[in-house]
Each structure stands twice: as structure tokens, then as C-alpha cells.
Amino acid sequence: MQSLDTMALFALVVEAGSFTAAATQSGLPKSTVSQRIAELEAGLNLRLLHRTTRKLSLTDAGRTYLEYCQRVRDAALAGEAALSRLSGQPAGKLRITAPDITTQTLLPDVLAGFQQRWPHVTLEVFATDAHLDLIGEGIDLAIRMGRLEDSSFVSRRLGQVRRVLVASPAYLATHGTPSRPEDLALHACLVHPATAQWRYRSTAGEAGFPMPVPRQSSNSIAYLKQLAILGQGIAMLPAYLCEQALSDGALHVVLPDYALALSDYWLVYPSKAHASAALLALLQWLDECGLREKLG
């Protein structure tokens, strides 16, 4: 019978899509991963993977065997998670992904407090606006913004992000201050691709602001904030990100009587069944640490 560790490694190689990615996630040298899969194939006397310079693909035998390897791996993870919960002492490693601006502004204090509470948990945080493959990348928890795609993952709404339209005093002195939504069509707008259409809430529901072609667009909210401070235009930014600049007078709120549409922040993780004590402790911490209030 094949080693359960090797069966789990085979499942990881397939899900990660390459020996290199599997080596990174497992902490093993790439040569070791490749050798162990070769030994697995030799022991079964079957080829499980087609190997090319660009990608791996499953043979018919590999496709059949993968299902059993995943079942074995998942059962082992479920057992470890159950024992971890029984111990009552969160420990181990958690891999987290979150939008870049969230990791810069909100998560440092939150996660520092969590590790002070649970010092035996190690955290690895990936700052990216891209939606990483939770299974392929071995992610335990993703923090995501906006509308979620349908999936088999568990999702919980963390809160809603309040946004404001802002511009510098110098920009408004030069170009005038908009007094109604239609005025934005005459102004320079600084736009994030995820919110290319600015929307506000009214008694009739949501409506879109009339906007020109953006003067600049960027996937970095921090960059757009600095452009606004430098007088380059009007930006729509998370309210929590602008608090200091608004307090200092570096930015002013534009169209304050129009409430912008809210965006949901979500916690997404692969499975309740495999949630370790460390992940459960982090989920509880995120509920209790006041992050929901900071978002809104």
C-alpha cells in the first residue's frame, strides 16, 4: 500500500498544477517532490501524469487515483482539525490572502493582536487584489471585496465598506466644487478598475454618477489617494483610508449629501469540516476585534 503522505503529495501536485508550486506549498525541494511522484508511479506500475515543459496533465489512471488520494488527504485533515479543536490550543500555520490596501491599513493591528493572543499560530499573508486559488495555493482564509462568484467555499460577510468622494483643496479651488452628480462629468476622475462605475444611493435605489473617461486609473488605492492629495482629480476611496487626510485638511469630501453604494467584505475559506482550531480562533477574533466598525 502506498504511503498516505505520498498520496497527499500527489493530490497537492495536481491541485497546484506543477512540481514547483507543490514544492513551495509543501516545503520540500522540487527534486524530492518529483522523485516521490516517480516512485509512486513505479510502485503502482502506472503512469499518473503526462509531463511537458509547460504543464502537467492527468492520465486516465491518474484521474481515477486522484479521487482516492483526495479522499484520504481530506479525511486526514479532518481528523487533524478535530484533534486540534479538542486540544483547545490554536497552533500551526495559517495562510491568508487579502486586498493589498487591507493588508497595509487594517490587518497589521488586527493580526498583531491575534498573535499576541495565540502566540503558537504562525501567519503567512499574501497581499494581492487577485483572487488566488484557495486550494491550489493552500490558502486557509481569503478576505475579499465585492460580489462573490458562486462556489463550494464557505463565505461569511465581514462587514461593508463605506466610501467617500474626495479631492484636494487645491484641485477644488482651481476646478470648482461639484454640487450635484451631473457635475462629475466635467471633472478629472481617478478610478480603480474594480469600481469603474461610481454609484450612489437615493430614495429610488442605486444610481450611477455621470463620469468622463478617467484622467488616471490604477489598481492601487493607495496610489489614487496620493494622486488626489496632489490635486490630480476626484477619487472614490474607502472612508477609513481617508480619515487622517480629511482631518488634516489634505482632502475634502465631495458631494457629501450623496451616500455612495456600499461594498461587502467577505471571509472565504474552503471547508467548515477541515477548519482547524487556529482558523476558528482567527474567525472569532475577526468578529470581536472591531474590524467591522473600522470598515464602515
Task: Summarize the SSE layout with pairings.
Elements: H1 4-16, H2 19-26, H3 30-44, E1 49-51, E2 56-58, H4 60-87, E3 92-98, H5 100-105, H6 107-117, E4 121-127, E5 141-145, E6 154-161, E7 163-167, H7 169-175, E8 189-191, E9 199-202, E10 205-208, E11 216-217, H8 221-229, E12 234-238, H9 239-248, E13 252-254, E14 259-260, E15 263-269, H10 277-288, H11 291-295
Parallel strand pairs: 3-4, 3-5, 8-11, 8-12
Antiparallel strand pairs: 1-2, 5-15, 6-15, 7-12, 7-13, 9-10, 9-14
Helix pairs in contact: 1-2, 1-3, 1-4, 2-3
Quick recap:
The protein has 296 residues and is an alpha/beta fold.
Distance between the termini: 55 Å
**Roughly how much helix do the residues carry, as a percent range?**
40-55%
Main sheet, how many strands, which sense, barrel? 5 strands, mixed
Stretches where pLDDT falls below 50 for ≥5 residues? none
- Total strands: the figure is 15
General shape = elongated
Structural class: alpha/beta
Number of helices: 11
Mean pLDDT: 87
**Approximately how much beta-strand content do the residues carry?**
15-25%
SSE sequence, one letter per element: HHHEEHEHHEEEEHEEEEHEHEEEHH
Give the radius of gyration.
24 Å
Strand order in space, largest sheet = 4-3-5-15-6
